[in-house]
Write a structure and sequence with these properties.
This is Major facilitator superfamily (MFS) profile domain-containing protein. Belongs to the major facilitator superfamily. Sugar transporter (TC 2.A.1.1) family. It comes from Populus tomentosa. By secondary structure, the protein is mainly alpha-helical. It is built from 25 helices and no strands.
């Protein structure tokens, strides 16, 4: 791989010389690293289920429990509107967005593997505290530690997968992160469905079971190789080449290894990678990869459904067990979507999946809003046919998200940044993602209470905007080596006006590097 936006374009076009075979060593490395997604997914799935369990509410949120009992057989937009209850969910993401910057330093200086191990240890400790929580303070502390684990793993794992995978199959293997996230959500909903029947401590089992994926990832990470990119970046050239040969299944890696060295040499010249993100040559990566896509991934409204699916279905008048069962169905749709994307994204490309799914998701959100406007919030049980229709609409929405904004929201940012700003860029990706994840988690139930069906019309409008954003600003990145991505922006109808040819880059004032 080549030297990002610094090197001469003719030097960079060596991707046709890259050779690789799919080896067992490579598959093992990707599967173990991708377990980081299961931490994120398990928490996404488990938190909403636990907050709908009566035993949990009686112990920590008796006011919400009493309100729920008063409207037990009614539809009520405001049944779960409680800011402390939503803080239980969102506190994790506030912790993640803070510690992702510490993860960036560790990832760059000590490698991707070190961050993966730190993430699993922190997540394990948080799960233990949550399982034995006796008061709200213990719950929040445990959630913050879980957030630290998410901050480290979400920062390192997408980078690890993108750097280990060959360019031609990078999309497929990077999406293992999203697949394990979806599987984590599905497993969490199945666990909740079982533990909801265990009184009065079933919720403790749900929260404590988060230790299992943490242990699997932590122990597995001890046997992981560091990525060749990271080893070269740390000056371990001989070890880097050995790992590259092992994961590619061939000793003929001269072209790719030379590109890694070129990229590393340019990266070492960058003393302030966060500041470097602000330069003109990195403007597309900053706007699209670090800010736009991670923000839009949350503003689809998907995570509001994932966080509070059981709560949301109960608000629609579903029983507790039925609402958890419905959550299992929707998370199953996510898994099918992730598998679909893995199989086809390297064939049809990122843009196709983004744009087509955005159109679908817009239609589903409008249909959901219209149905709720006509039939919901009148203090009576929803007709069975309407309830089934809502579950189907939400499943279709999950399927569309699961093959587009879900996996591609992590894949595309991880492949846009050159090596010199990769860790810093991924930190901003995680930070922005967690900021909007936390805001959605904290604000969704109160917004549902006050805006009612209007909240879904807002999500529909946002989906329409983000689909247009992709259509006009994101070039296709399938099968392009990571270190040659910058060439796409130099040839893009809009971005070429900003980045020029990359040979006369500016500082931060925007006066230099202007295209002639």
């Amino acid at each position: 791989m080549a030297g990002g936006a610094f090197a001469d374009g003719a030097t960079l076009k060596r991707a046709h010389l890259y050779e690789y075979k799919t080896t067992g060593y490579f598959i093992f490395s990707c599967l173990v690293a991708a377990m980081g997604g299961s931490l994120f997914g398990y928490d996404l799935g488990v938190s909403g289920g636990v907050t709908s369990m009566d035993d949990f509410l009686k112990k920590f949120f008796p006011q919400v429990y009493r309100r729920k009992q008063q409207h037990l057989h009614e539809t009520d937009y405001c049944k779960y509107d409680n800011q402390i209850l939503t803080l239980f969910t969102s506190s994790l993401y506030f912790g993640a967005l803070i510690f992702t910057f510490a993860a960036s330093h560790l990832t760059r200086s000590k490698g991707r593997k070190a961050s993966i191990i730190c993430g699993s240890l922190s997540f394990f400790c948080g799960a233990i505290i949550n399982a034995f929580a006796m008061n709200i303070a213990m719950l929040i502390i445990g959630r913050l530690l879980l957030g630290v684990g998410i901050g480290f793993s979400n920062q390192a794992v997408p980078l690890y997968l993108s750097e280990m995978a060959p360019a031609k199959t990078r999309g497929r293997y990077n999406q293992l992160f999203q697949l394990t996230t979806c599987l984590g959500i599905l497993v969490a909903n199945l666990v909740n469905y079982g533990t909801e029947k265990i009184h009065p401590w079933g919720w403790r089992l749900s929260l404590g079971s988060a230790t299992i994926p943490a242990i699997l990832m932590g122990v597995g990470a001890l046997f992981l190789p560091e990525t060749p990119n990271s080893l070269v970046e740390q000056g371990k050239l001989e070890e880097g080449r050995k790992v590259l040969e092992k994961v590619r299944g061939t000793t003929n890696v001269d072209a790719e290894f030379a590109d890694l060295i070129d990229a590393s040499n340019e990266a070492k010249a960058i003393k302030h990678p966060f500041r470097n993100l602000l330069t003109r040559k990195n403007r597309p990566q900053l706007i699209i990869g670090a800010l736009g896509i991670p923000m839009f991934q949350q503003l689809t409204g998907m995570n509001s459904i994932l966080f509070y699916a059981p709560v949301f279905f109960q608000s629609l008048g579903f029983g507790s067990g039925t609402s958890l069962y419905s959550s299992v169905i929707t998370s199953g749709a996510l898994v099918v979507g992730a598998l679909t994307s893995m199989a086809l994204v390297d064939k049809f490309g990122r843009r196709t999946f983004f744009i087509e799914a955005s159109i679908e998701m817009f239609c589903y959100m409008v249909a959901l809003a219209i149905t709720l406007a006509l039939k919901f919030g009148q203090g009576v049980n929803l007709p069975k046919a309407i309830s089934v229709f809502l579950v189907i609409i939400i499943c279709l929405f999950c399927f569309a998200y699961g093959r587009s904004w879900g996996p591609l929201g992590w894949l595309v940012p991880s492949e846009l940044f050159p090596l010199e700003t990769r860790s810093a860029g991924q930190s901003i990706v995680v930070c922005v993602n967690m900021i909007f994840t936390a805001l959605i988690a904290q604000c969704f139930l109160v917004s549902l209470c006050h805006l009612r069906y209007g909240i879904f019309l807002i999500f529909a409008g946002l989906v329409a905007f983000m689909g247009s954003f992709i259509f006009f600003l994101l070039p296709e990145t399938k099968q392009v080596p990571i270190e040659e991505i910058y060439i796409l922006f130099q040839n893009h109808w809009f971005w070429k006006k900003i980045v020029g040819d990359g040979t006369n880059d500016d500082g931060l004032d925007g006066k230099k590097g202007q295209p002639n």
